[in-house]
Amino acid sequence: MSRKKITVIGAGNIGAAVAAYSSAEELGDVVVLDILEGVPEGKSLDLLEAAPILGVCSRIVGTNDYRDTADSDVVIMTAGIARKPGMSRDDLLKTNVRIVSEAAENAAQFSPNAILIVLSNPLDAMVYAAWEKSGFHWRRVIGSAGALDSARFRAFVAAEIGVSPVDIQAIVIGGHGDTMLPLVGSCNVGGIPVNHFLGPERIEEIVQRTRDGGAEIVRLLKTGSAYYAPAAAAVELARSVLLDQKRLLPVSTYVDLHGEFGRRNTFCGVPAIVGAGGIEQVIQLPLTEEEENAFKKSLSAVCSLMEEVDKLL
Amino acid sequence: MSKKKITVIGAGNVGASVAAYASAEELGNVVVVDILDGVPQGKSLDLFEAAPVLGVSSYVVGANDFEATTDSDLVVIAAGIARKPGMSRDDLLRTNVKIVGEVAEKAARASPNAILIVVSNPLDAMVYTAWKRSGFSPRKIIGMAGSLDSTRFRSFISLELGISPVDVHALVLGGHGDSMVPLTRFCFVGGIPVTHFIRPERLEEIVQRTRDGGAEIVSLLKTGSAYYAPAAAAVEIARAILRDQKRILPVTAYLDGEFGYAGMFAGVPAIMGANGVEKVIDLKLTDEERTGFEKSTAGVRYLMAEVDNLL
After folding, report:
1. Which of A209, A250, B271, B274 is deepest in the core (most CB within 10 A)?
2. What is the DSSP letter of A225?
3. What ipTM does the predicted assembly reach?
């Protein structure tokens, strides 16, 4: 029985935070890969030097070479650039489709049995690109977005009511962006529906704050975007895969469209059971008419993104 | 019984990592203070939003003033600037004495019963500054240096032997970096002296790599310095205090006759608990160790005199 091996692609803030959280709880040995020379090695050495005090036995190594990632159990994709001032949305998409496609292809070649977790943005488009380029079965390619969106929703509800976030459950479905859909009906606090604690207007404000969650952090930081909560959410998925926890989590996964929106398929946020096999079962939720309409709207927005990705692949 | 409150001063990489490790293990609620508008708030909100997935109930908030830090149980000072190209050592010292002096005073006023852990560099000078300006009893001021040096030493020994770092114990004395004195006779692997596994010449190479540990990370990162291991080392001390663990850790502590010195701070092993430094372990040193330790303390005395001129 050998140790689990986790590859993190991208040594930026998110990639390094993923390596930090996963090594701190000894999920496995971690390889951090980046094209930048020195940075993955430096951050990994710093993390390795923290292991004795954290009391964990994880090895962390940085590299520029995919050969070091060989036979990983989980590959976490955080590569890609952030949108720079003056850069069009199309240019961002073009650049990141190229980066993520290449990385997915390389990673898949060296770790043909891995589960691939994608965090790069725009999220649903990047999961789709990684799926296409890796050649992996869709069950083995998971987009990490809903877990982050729902963590934000839970954090805000917890702060509002003054109860522990641990006791708040929430599901967020749809695309990762303006059209995301927190399912308020499913949100409960220690099993009690959230509307027992909060009025509809206040809940709607929290829903809106969740949608704008990424932008709120960018506005505060000014020169960067969120990385702690996104990394923690990705590690939650990785843990569920590596420990075969069968957790029920919101993820971005393959959705069969049967020609709806003019497409056969897309990737979009839905709840699913995540285990050693990746996405083991997608949960079909009964939605209210209002939720159904909002979900359709979100699917339609995601589909137009997929059309653009198809042209770039 | 209320939740412990931890203040982290400085929202840079080290400060944010201290907040990240401390909140992830629910050591207490965390307040991150920085003069930069938005940065402590943004990093804290990001950390707070991670709490639900991490399954912890810690609150993390950012602030620009010390009012939010009122009645903290523990204050970690990670403020100060890094040395920039072309900047003299004196300029760095002057700037950081000013920054650390000011925050130590404000933090002490807001949390008169707190224990203070200093991480800012140059470490020995900053611990002394924080003591002078906080007005705290010296045993309530702790400098983080030895635990970082020792974790580096342990990780390198672990790599060398292919044995878990958890089973490697090591103790370092003296100042941080060049003047560090690793006591290799106190280095054990699962209770077995390290010399059973590694010959002296190789051990000396590992000691040297440990001394250069900070520089090695800087040379790799190019545009920054280490923050994960330093933050983890600071949180180790914080945990020992907040949970009253009575751990023996290498820290920069006030000497009151131990090792033959009084009225100054030096890197020594000490028992850490709810009262801060509860006891300095006064070790009998070999001649060689004593020489290294004296060299290190001479450096500290020189720095103290410089700080006195600036305060």
Report:
1. A250
2. -
3. 0.87
